[in-house]
Protein backbone atom coordinates (compact mmCIF):
# COMPACT_ATOMS: atom_id res chain seq x y z
CA UNK A 1 0.00 0.00 0.00
CA UNK A 2 2.88 2.40 0.78
CA UNK A 3 4.40 1.92 -2.67
CA UNK A 4 1.05 2.26 -4.41
CA UNK A 5 0.26 5.55 -2.64
CA UNK A 6 3.76 6.85 -3.30
CA UNK A 7 3.38 5.98 -6.98
CA UNK A 8 -0.07 7.61 -7.11
CA UNK A 9 1.32 10.75 -5.45
CA UNK A 10 4.13 10.77 -7.99
CA UNK A 11 1.67 10.45 -10.87
CA UNK A 12 -0.58 13.28 -9.71
CA UNK A 13 2.40 15.49 -8.91
CA UNK A 14 3.79 14.80 -12.37
CA UNK A 15 0.48 15.78 -13.95
CA UNK A 16 0.51 19.09 -12.07
CA UNK A 17 4.15 19.74 -12.96
CA UNK A 18 3.25 19.14 -16.59
CA UNK A 19 0.31 21.52 -16.41
CA UNK A 20 2.35 24.36 -14.94
CA UNK A 21 5.23 23.63 -17.34
CA UNK A 22 2.84 23.77 -20.31
CA UNK A 23 1.75 27.25 -19.23
CA UNK A 24 5.36 28.35 -18.79
CA UNK A 25 6.65 27.13 -22.14
CA UNK A 26 3.65 27.35 -24.47
CA UNK A 27 0.42 28.91 -23.20
CA UNK A 28 1.82 32.15 -21.81
CA UNK A 29 4.43 32.68 -24.56
CA UNK A 30 1.66 32.08 -27.10
CA UNK A 31 -0.64 34.56 -25.39
CA UNK A 32 2.19 37.10 -25.15
CA UNK A 33 1.90 37.49 -28.91
CA UNK A 34 -1.82 38.34 -28.99
CA UNK A 35 -3.63 41.64 -28.55
CA UNK A 36 -4.86 42.80 -25.13
CA UNK A 37 -8.50 41.91 -25.74
CA UNK A 38 -7.63 38.35 -26.76
CA UNK A 39 -5.20 37.95 -23.86
CA UNK A 40 -7.59 39.16 -21.16
CA UNK A 41 -10.59 37.29 -22.54
CA UNK A 42 -8.65 34.07 -23.00
CA UNK A 43 -7.11 34.14 -19.53
CA UNK A 44 -10.48 34.90 -17.97
CA UNK A 45 -11.96 31.93 -19.79
CA UNK A 46 -9.10 29.59 -18.87
CA UNK A 47 -9.21 30.67 -15.22
CA UNK A 48 -12.91 29.90 -15.01
CA UNK A 49 -12.72 26.55 -16.77
CA UNK A 50 -9.68 25.19 -14.96
CA UNK A 51 -11.77 24.99 -11.81
CA UNK A 52 -13.15 21.55 -12.58
CA UNK A 53 -13.12 18.13 -10.96
CA UNK A 54 -10.15 16.78 -12.90
CA UNK A 55 -7.96 19.72 -11.94
CA UNK A 56 -9.04 19.67 -8.30
CA UNK A 57 -8.46 15.92 -7.97
CA UNK A 58 -4.93 16.26 -9.31
CA UNK A 59 -4.06 19.54 -7.54
CA UNK A 60 -5.42 18.69 -4.10
CA UNK A 61 -5.03 14.91 -4.48
CA UNK A 62 -1.29 15.26 -5.02
CA UNK A 63 -0.92 17.12 -1.73
CA UNK A 64 -3.09 14.62 0.12
CA UNK A 65 -1.31 11.57 -1.29
CA UNK A 66 2.16 12.99 -0.65
CA UNK A 67 1.14 13.63 2.95
CA UNK A 68 -0.32 10.14 3.37
CA UNK A 69 2.73 8.55 1.73
CA UNK A 70 5.01 10.46 4.11
CA UNK A 71 2.91 9.41 7.11
CA UNK A 72 2.98 5.77 6.04
CA UNK A 73 6.77 5.88 5.80
CA UNK A 74 7.29 7.42 9.26
CA UNK A 75 7.89 4.02 10.85
CA UNK A 76 10.17 2.93 7.99
CA UNK A 77 12.31 6.06 7.87
CA UNK A 78 15.32 6.17 5.58
CA UNK A 79 15.69 7.82 2.20
CA UNK A 80 12.12 7.13 1.07
CA UNK A 81 10.79 9.15 3.99
CA UNK A 82 13.38 11.89 3.49
CA UNK A 83 12.58 12.25 -0.22
CA UNK A 84 8.82 12.15 0.45
CA UNK A 85 9.04 14.82 3.15
CA UNK A 86 11.14 16.96 0.77
CA UNK A 87 8.46 16.47 -1.88
CA UNK A 88 5.80 17.51 0.62
CA UNK A 89 7.72 20.72 1.32
CA UNK A 90 8.16 21.49 -2.37
CA UNK A 91 4.53 20.74 -3.19
CA UNK A 92 3.48 22.78 -0.15
CA UNK A 93 5.37 25.71 -1.69
CA UNK A 94 3.45 25.12 -4.93
CA UNK A 95 0.16 25.29 -3.01
CA UNK A 96 1.19 28.47 -1.18
CA UNK A 97 2.27 30.18 -4.40
CA UNK A 98 -0.96 29.18 -6.10
CA UNK A 99 -3.26 30.25 -3.27
CA UNK A 100 -1.36 33.37 -2.20
CA UNK A 101 -0.40 34.77 -5.60
CA UNK A 102 -1.87 33.02 -8.66
CA UNK A 103 -5.47 32.74 -7.45
CA UNK A 104 -5.71 36.38 -6.29
CA UNK A 105 -4.32 37.53 -9.65
CA UNK A 106 -6.87 35.35 -11.43
CA UNK A 107 -9.68 36.73 -9.27
CA UNK A 108 -8.57 40.30 -9.91
CA UNK A 109 -8.52 39.63 -13.65
CA UNK A 110 -12.03 38.17 -13.48
CA UNK A 111 -13.25 41.12 -11.40
CA UNK A 112 -12.26 43.47 -14.22
CA UNK A 113 -15.43 42.24 -15.92
CA UNK A 114 -16.22 41.14 -19.46
CA UNK A 115 -13.65 42.28 -22.02
CA UNK A 116 -16.31 44.28 -23.89
CA UNK A 117 -16.81 46.42 -20.79
CA UNK A 118 -13.18 47.00 -19.79
CA UNK A 119 -12.17 50.56 -20.62
CA UNK A 120 -8.39 50.02 -20.42
CA UNK A 121 -7.54 46.46 -21.47
CA UNK A 122 -3.83 47.36 -21.63
CA UNK A 123 -3.76 48.35 -17.95
CA UNK A 124 -5.63 45.20 -16.91
CA UNK A 125 -3.20 43.05 -18.86
CA UNK A 126 -0.14 44.88 -17.52
CA UNK A 127 -1.30 44.45 -13.92
CA UNK A 128 -1.66 40.70 -14.48
CA UNK A 129 0.61 39.16 -17.11
CA UNK A 130 4.23 39.58 -16.02
CA UNK A 131 3.46 38.97 -12.33
CA UNK A 132 1.39 35.88 -13.10
CA UNK A 133 4.08 34.52 -15.42
CA UNK A 134 6.80 34.95 -12.74
CA UNK A 135 4.75 33.20 -10.05
CA UNK A 136 3.80 30.43 -12.45
CA UNK A 137 7.46 29.87 -13.29
CA UNK A 138 8.29 29.61 -9.59
CA UNK A 139 5.47 27.15 -8.90
CA UNK A 140 6.57 25.16 -11.94
CA UNK A 141 10.03 24.86 -10.39
CA UNK A 142 8.67 23.88 -6.96
CA UNK A 143 6.26 21.37 -8.50
CA UNK A 144 8.94 19.80 -10.72
CA UNK A 145 11.20 19.60 -7.65
CA UNK A 146 8.41 17.79 -5.76
CA UNK A 147 8.01 15.38 -8.66
CA UNK A 148 11.78 14.74 -8.79
CA UNK A 149 11.81 14.06 -5.04
CA UNK A 150 8.98 11.55 -5.39
CA UNK A 151 10.76 9.80 -8.25
CA UNK A 152 13.85 9.64 -6.02
CA UNK A 153 11.71 8.22 -3.20
CA UNK A 154 10.37 5.51 -5.49
CA UNK A 155 13.84 4.66 -6.74
CA UNK A 156 15.32 4.53 -3.24
CA UNK A 157 12.81 2.12 -1.73
CA UNK A 158 13.96 -1.34 -0.84
CA UNK A 159 12.60 -4.09 -3.04
The value of Rg in angstroms is 18 Å
Which regions have little confidence, pLDDT < 50, spanning 5+ residues? none
Order of H and E elements: HHHHHH
Binned, the helix content reads: over 70%
* Average pLDDT level: 97
**How much beta, percentage-wise?**
under 5%
How many helices? The count is: 6
Shape descriptor reads elongated
Q: What's the end-to-end separation, in Å? A: 14 Å
Largest sheet, if any?
none
Structural class: mainly alpha
Total beta-strand segments: 0
Report on the architecture of this protein:
It contains 6 helices and no strands. With 159 residues, it is mostly helical.
Structural descriptors:
159 residues, 84% helix, mainly alpha
Summarize the structure.
The chain has 159 residues and is an all-alpha fold. The chain is 84% helix and 0% strand. The mean pLDDT is 97.
What topology does this entry show?
Layout (H helix, E strand, L loop, with lengths): L1 H31 L3 H14 L3 H20 L5 H34 L9 H6 L2 H28 L3
Helix pairs in contact: 1-3, 1-6, 3-4, 4-6
